[in-house]
Amino acid sequence: MNKKTLITRFIVFFLLSSLNFVYASQCKGHFVNPITDVCWNCLFPLTIGSSEVVKSSYPDTNNPGNPLCLCPTPIGERLGVTIGYWEPAALVDVTPKPWCMVNLGVQLNVTKKGLGGSQMPEVDGRGAFYYVHWYKYPLVYWLQVLTSLGCMETEDFDILYPSELDPTWNDSELAFVLNPEAVLFTSPPARASCAFDASKALAGTAVNSLFWCQGAQGSTYPLTGFVAHQASPISTAALLAERVDFKLHRPPTPAIRDSVGQDWPAVCHTYTSSIMPKDRYRYQLVNTLPEARQCHPFGRSVISWEAGHTYPGDGDNFGFLIWKKRNCCFL
Question: Global pTM?
Fold first, then answer.
């Protein structure tokens, strides 16, 4: 992509962030403004090798010990520097309205809700059901914050996953057939282990080996839009965003790749993983009331910050920016 095309895309992208769309009155939300809505402090800490160049109060993952790397390029191997930072990689809508694109400020006029069944949660005052949309969001590439293509997402903005087209999202029985391991993690001991995961997330990051837990938010399973006990709308929305991240890591067709904090040659590539590395992800609320001053590790309780981030009667529409740890060889 040449510089002229990139500048044109960014201008269009920036203008969209200030527009009010026709359907915005029916679907709460707005196009995310990369200047005012994004917590740029969440990019840090920035490391070279294992040394912090720009410090941060946010917890970090392991980083390569060797500050140098030798990685393949189209013209042969090149010597580079191993860096680590947190990249804004995805946007996520969580909404009770089908085809409400919260982070775009648009309600799509789709007559059919999707391919799933007609099952809906029980109306008992505690349960909830939401639709989720996952977008690719290569913001670092758009803004040219870095110049090494191996150190950022370079794909176009795209809707990677709309739950309305997933037949398992509102069909618990079908989801169980495709994910039978869920039965192992509904027992009281498995549920109790999530308290330990929540305590670790409160002090730092969640425990990757407890993949059936999403810290204080609740259980990873079932991999549907149903939540049996809704502690709060924001907590439920964060849980479903984390569920979809986990779901997109799953075989047979994983859609998300992660880097690793290891020395070269491992740091030269990204990898698929059937278990989402929770400690390599953060989230930030960007809709409908942006929280532009802080982000939160996956699994950390929302109690300390959720107050004042919802409008009464706004329909519980939420948008998150997902930050992903990036270890790479800067060439």
Answer: 0.88
Q: Are 194 and 278 in contact (CB under 8 A)?
A: no
Ranges of H-type helices in the chain: 3-16, 139-143, 172-178, 188-203, 233-249
Q: In which band, very low, low, confident or very high, does the pLDDT at 147 lie, cut at 50, 70 and 90?
A: low
Distance CA 131, CA 254 (A): 20
- 270 contacts: CB under 8 Å, gap ≥ 6: 257, 258, 259
- Average pLDDT (71-84) is 91
Nearest residue to 19 (alpha-carbon basis) of 9, 6, 32: 32
Q: Are 197 and 207 in contact (CB under 8 A)?
A: yes
Q: Which residues contact 61 (CB under 8 A, 6 or more apart)?
A: 84, 205, 261, 277, 279, 280, 325
Say if residues 148 and 331 touch (Cβ distance below 8 Å): yes
Nearest to 94 by CA among 41, 168, 169: 169
**Cα distances (Å, whole numbers) of residue 74 to 71, 78, 152, 327:** 10, 10, 17, 20
Q: What is the pLDDT of residue 187?
A: 82
Task: Give the residue extent of every domain in the chain.
Answer: 3-330
Q: pLDDT tens for residues 243-260?
A: 999 999 998 889 999 999
Q: Which two tokens stand for residue 123?
A: 């109306």
Looking at per-residue pLDDT, the higher value among 110 and 201 belongs to: 201
